[in-house]
Design brief:
The protein is globular and about 50 Å long. Strands 1, 2, 3, 4 and 5 form a 5-stranded antiparallel sheet that branches. It is an alpha+beta fold and 197 residues long. Helices cover 46% and strands 16% of the residues. It has one domain: NADH Oxidase. Helix 2 packs across helix 6. It starts with a helix and ends in a 20-residue tail after the last strand. Bound molecules: flavin mononucleotide. The site of flavin mononucleotide has 7 residues, from loops.
Length: 197
């Protein structure tokens, strides 16, 4: 698939299943290639990515479920539960972290850019997330981007031995696509893109 087709083929896909499209090693290799090709400010390489498969994937969504059960009013919880279940039935989850020690070191090393590094760290993570999302979509996986952080951070870190200096940025449940994703409507391109001579 060419790069444009691959990008156009990426959607928020909430209909995912637990069947495998390839071996776990192949999924790992996709992530390794994408991580190794993603840019970062000053090549700081602050991203940290955890691939949750099998029991870890299930355990993660149980943490999300239990956390939200304590926060969401009982009469509204059924909707929340259905949503979380729809991620848990997928094949795996990618957790996107940023190593805040690296961000801090960069701030100390380049004080004149101090305020920029936390912003660039977020931007770098976004680029990585987008690249993984495109790679997954081009391989036939459905995926979506979720943000249950920060309320799940502590328990998740404890469960998966995540270093204290890693900040959870996003979660990407993925799996075989079991439905056609809704195509997001985009405003006219003229509102977003301008050419000046
Ligand atoms: C920074 C960012 C945060 C997002 N957060 C969430 C989220 O927490 N939950 C979710 O279901 N989708 C989330 N999305 C997905 C958007 O809702 C989605 O990309 C948008 O509606 C366009 O649809 P598409 O992904 O199918 O193109 C997020 C997207 C971005 C770029």
């Amino acid at each position: 698939m060419d790069i444009y087709r691959a990008m156009e083929n990426r959607h928020s896909n909430y209909s995912i299943g637990g069947g495998s499209l390839m071996s776990d090693t192949e999924i790992e290799n996709i992530l390794k290639r994408v991580i190794n090709s993603a840019p970062s400010a000053f090549n700081s390489q602050s991203s940290r990515t955890i691939l949750l498969l099998g029991e870890s994937h299930i355990a993660f969504w149980k943490i999300v479920m239990d956390t939200l059960r304590r926060k969401v009013p009982a009469d509204k919880f059924q909707t929340t539960k259905m949503k979380i279940d729809s991620f848990a039935v997928g094949y795996g989850t990618v957790l996107y972290y940023e190593d805040m020690d690296i961000v801090k070191n960069m701030q100390e090393k380049f004080p004149s850019y101090s305020d920029n590094f936390p912003v660039w760290s977020q931007q770098s993570s976004g680029m990585l997330q987008f690249a993984v999302w495109i790679a997954f979509a081009s391989e036939g996986f459905g995926a979506s981007l979720q943000h249950y952080n920060p309320i799940i951070d502590e328990e998740t870190a404890e469960k998966f031995d995540v270093p204290k200096n890693w900040k959870l940025i996003a979660q990407m449940p993925f799996g075989e696509s079991t439905g056609t994703p809704k195509i997001a409507v985009h405003d006219p391109i003229e509102e977003h893109f301008f050419v000046k001579y």
